[in-house]
């Protein structure tokens, strides 16, 4: 399976120190934190994150963010796909990873 290796390395570095497992899925390489998907690097260089559905409407308004979809169908609320221009700065990239980690921690309590 092909995926953006630079993006995957960047995610891997950002998640260092967390309980992470890597799995090829969603057309890329997914990073599971505590056995829940947090982020995915796909073959087009897009970053997909799992974030809090309650704030996803606000998050999708950020630069180059959109609702994630699979095979032409919109995924459930909370899955967001971000084009490279939306995470190119370290600040933007860290924002998205933190959004994924925040939801991961929140969902671990449910």
Summarize the structure.
The chain has 110 residues and is an alpha+beta fold.
Description:
The protein is α+β, with helices and mostly antiparallel strands. The chain has one domain (5-108): Aspartate Aminotransferase, domain 1 (Alpha-Beta Complex). Helices cover 30% and strands 31% of the residues. It has helices at residues 5-14, 56-59, 90-108; strands at residues 20-25, 28-33, 36-42, 47-50, 65-67, 69-70, 73-74, 79-82. The strands form 2 sheets. A 6-stranded antiparallel sheet has the order 1-2-3-4-8-5. Strands 6-7 form a two-stranded antiparallel sheet. A hairpin with a 2-residue loop joins strand 2 (28-33) and strand 3. The radius of gyration is 13 Å and the shape is globular.
Characteristics of this structure?
single chain; 110 residues; alpha+beta; Aspartate Aminotransferase, domain 1; six-stranded antiparallel β-sheet; two-stranded antiparallel ribbon; 3 helices; 8 strands; 30% helix; globular
**What kind of sheet is the major sheet?**
6 strands, antiparallel
N-to-C span: 32 Å
Count of separate structural domains = 1
Would you give the CATH topology?
A: Aspartate Aminotransferase, domain 1
Structural class category: alpha+beta
The count of strands amounts to 8
Radius of gyration: 13 Å
Helix tally equals: 3
Order of helices and strands: HEEEEHEEEEH
Strand content: 25-35%
Mean pLDDT score: 92
Large-scale geometry: globular
Task: Show unreliable segments.
Answer: none
Using the 3D structure, state the CATH architecture: Alpha-Beta Complex
- Percent of residues in helical segments? 25-40%
CATH hierarchy class name: Alpha Beta
User: Taking strands numbered 1, 2, ... along the chain, how are they ordered across the largest sheet?
Assistant: 1-2-3-4-8-5
């Amino acid at each position: 399976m092909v995926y953006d290796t630079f993006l995957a390395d960047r995610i891997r570095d950002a998640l260092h120190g967390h309980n992470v497992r890597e799995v090829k899925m969603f057309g890329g390489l997914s990073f599971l934190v505590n056995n829940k998907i947090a982020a995915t690097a796909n073959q087009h260089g897009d970053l997909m994150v799992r974030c809090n559905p309650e704030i996803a409407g606000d998050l999708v308004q950020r630069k180059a963010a959109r609702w994630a979809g699979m095979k032409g169908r919109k995924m459930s609320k909370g899955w967001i796909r971000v084009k490279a221009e939306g995470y190119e700065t370290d600040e933007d990239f860290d924002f998205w990873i933190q959004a994924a980690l925040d939801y991961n921690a929140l969902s671990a309590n449910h």
